[in-house]
Amino acid sequence: MAVVLALRNISKSYGAIVIAKDLNLEVEEGDAVGILGPNGAGKTTLLGLISGTAAPDGGRIEYQRRDIGGLTPEKRCRAGIARAFQVPQPFGDMTVFENLTVAACFGAGIPQRAAQTRALGILEQCGLTPLANEQAGRLTLLNRKRLELARALASDPKLLLLDEIAGGLNQHECEDLVALVKRVHASGVTIVWIEHVLHALLSVVRRALVLYQGGFIADGDPHSVIREPKVAEIYMGIEADV
Fold first, then answer.
1. Is the CB of residue 101 less than 8 Å from the CB of residue 117?
2. Which domain holds residue 51?
3. What is the pLDDT of residues 15-26, one digit of tens each?
């Protein structure tokens, strides 16, 4: 399989806090990769480096074998990199349908009529059709998270970055969200997902990495990775939750 994303010797720090130190990562097209790590390890910053909202201190980020270090977040989105944030950020006064149309227009860079057609398809894919005319700001947490993911999908991504999207959901809501992510992945979208809700993550990803003190200390089969002694020590009993 072709490598869709590559981090080459990436370094990033905020003062004495080291997020990445000569970090390397390759993600193959069509893969689903989970990134674990304790609070403060820099997982969200790592997604920011990929999406362009943060800049590395050193190293190279490649997308589809192209150096994207000079691209703005908007241009990275147009190139096929989309991100769903931990805290949903819809346009609260707009309807669900309007949110998706705007995302398709400006994220995918397509005309309004085509964007509306794409929005209708995304509504159906994400189970949001009954809520199409609801104001986004009035949605439940689950549906705001569905909309956050839907807005990312409206930009027609090849690489989807998910940031703690299962947080705050109950068991049933989490299962619904996981089912949606599985459908997205099955459609051919490459996924990089950081998440603390392990049962959600483990039901989707095929590879897991653990970020700690600027580097990946584990990489491989998700169920094997979380049972490694050094990983269990960091999480203080993570294996009991799986």
1. no
2. 3-80+157-241
3. 999 999 999 999
